[in-house]
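Forwarding these from the shared drive since the link keeps breaking.
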Amino acid sequence: MTNKEQSGGQAYSRLALLASDTERALEAEAELRGQYDWVPLDEADAVVVLGGDGFMLQTLHHMLDTHRVIPAYGLNLGTVGFLMNRHRNANNILARIAKARPIAIAPLRMQAITQDGNNHTFNAINEVSLLRETRQTAKIEVTVGGKVRIRELVCDGVLVATPAGSTAYNLSANGPILPLDSQLLALTPISAFRPRRWRGAVLPDRSRVTFRVLDSAKRPVSAVADQKELRDVAEVSLEIARELELTLLFDPGHSLDERIVAEQFVV
């Protein structure tokens, strides 16, 4: 019996199953593996991801790297699980996927020039952060929409977060939580010394943001796109890569939108 027949004709008839290497995720994989007719990832039209947010990000990045993007339905077997659904009722997983709500997210494209003049391009689903590499504070010029907005930001770092990533590092740095459909980006300083009162900005997601590292020989800065780090950057430009849009599947009533709203009332 095929997955489509078991689920009553759901849109995703060929499902792949991926699990992180944690004990809980592997146990869940063993439980599900024999229940359905799973297919390899490169043959699937959707994927079930068992683990936490980190493993979901790893899976989404794999799709971007291999240029084969399919919808992903996550079951939370990690800690926070903002990108995942609740792990329950494994016996009706196909019915849950059939009722799931698709949410589109677009990653940031980071184009960076290092101090040696080389060009690098990375994608970030959560955020791109610039961080000082030594005990010296970083000095960074901030340009938004082609205009210099801050001539010299003296800080430990600065980041740009997507709505999907606004509850991650951005929130820890006291940045704003962005609803998933807000079409906004969060520009958030990390321990800013000057301008001392600047708390960041909320930008339209069509904005192009450029950081230029000042005094880079004395004050080196690294750029991190999700989990990928590039050291000794001279300039970093960021914009939404709409052509690389990804799709997450959420149970009704348990979407990322609801999680983002709920997080703002945690005391």
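-- next protein --
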Amino acid sequence: MYVVFLAGGIASGKSTVSAELVRLGAWRLDLDEVSRSVCSTGSPTTLALADRFGDDVVDPLTGELDRHLLAERAFSSPEGVSSLEAIEMPAIRSELVHALTNSCCAATEPEVCVVEVPLLDRVADLVDLADEVLVISSPLETRRQRACGRGMDVADFDRRVSAQPSDAYLVGHADTVIDNSDGREHLIGRVRSWWRSHVADGWTSPRKVGTEGRRS
């Protein structure tokens, strides 16, 4: 199975691309959902986070993780970030590997799995599981206009952007970049062209043939 890590900033068009890939036959997996799964009520990961960041990051009545409080504490220092990643990432990797190889996936036998990655810089230790990192790129102002057109406050958009990896980081860590600066129709066309190209070459990973930084 060919595994694609799909990344892009807020309002870049990542969801549109993911939906089109599913329509073309890919199996979709959201890394956010994987993260929530490993931090479920009573899980070893949740208990380890409480032990490191304080018992109050877990609701005493429901056992649910208070993600907002956890983020406040974890991201308050480099040491906190390192601790968070040391606890979460092995569990996320294990769960992701399981998801890519479990009976559900085997039953459907998809040729391609697209893994939606919210924050590519947070999952550097997982990138080796992908055959290709596909980044959807769009100018910041274009993305701001799209987000605000959907009802998002400008300040909220800017705050979210500041917490995400930069466009330079995303492009620099991509195997392939698909441009989304000129609307949905053109984006879908580029995605279909990307798909056809891979079908023609038998889903050969760009990492295996040494191709870097391809653009569509």
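The mean pLDDT is 88. Residues 78-101 form the longest helix (24 residues).

- D.
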